[in-house]
Design a protein that fits this description.
mainly alpha, Serine Threonine Protein Phosphatase 5, Tetratricopeptide repeat, 85% helix, 0% strand
Length: 177
């Protein structure tokens, strides 16, 4: 039962992040306020899902401690995004940069734990983790790029995070627990 719940949560998380990423790319002229609200809700739900995954399967999920930390950070980032004030809009590129760098690192570490467990395909998770960290560093060092470029970049990052969640959903099905 716990395994099915974890699979479902990662599946929903992946689909939600991909959906929000596509919406962000379709409407690049939207204000950071609207984008931060939409993304804030998606990040909050992702954080809650990660915390639930940890609580229900902390002894069976690879990198469970990282899943918990990622869930807590996701929830904290979401609270900032949902505040909706000007400071958040100005800090948004830095907030996302730190979030993406951390989640990319967490994915790469999880990939090596999958490698040690003998799971094939772990290299894709390393690549997506590294790609996430590269995108995060780009956001951090170019925080005031044109709004359209930032919206497209955020859309790509969210889609990447969604794909990563779907990869985790797929990997957990391959593990015989």
């Amino acid at each position: 039962m716990k395994r099915k719940l974890n699979q479902f949560l990662w599946l929903i998380s992946g689909i939600l992040l991909i959906f929000v990423g596509v919406i962000t790319m379709i409407f690049p002229s939207d204000t950071f306020h609207v984008i931060s609200m939409i993304i804030g809700i998606a990040v909050l739900l992702t954080g809650i899902f990660n915390i639930l995954v940890y609580m229900t399967a902390k002894n069976t999920v690879f990198g469970a401690g990282w899943v918990l930390i990622e869930g807590i950070i996701d929830c904290i980032v979401a609270v900032f995004l949902l505040c909706g004030n000007m400071i958040v809009a100005e800090a948004l590129p830095f907030i996302f940069a730190m979030w993406i760098i951390f989640t990319g690192a967490a994915r790469a570490i999880t990939a090596f734990e999958l490698k040690n467990a003998g799971i094939l395909g772990w290299g894709w998770l390393v690549l997506t983790g590294i790609a996430g960290m590269v995108f995060g560093f780009f956001c951090f060092f170019e925080p005031f790029a044109a709004q359209i470029a930032v919206s497209i970049l955020l859309g790509v990052i969210l889609i990447l995070e969604g794909v990563i969640s779907l990869l985790l959903w797929w990997y957990i099905q391959k593990i015989d627990l």
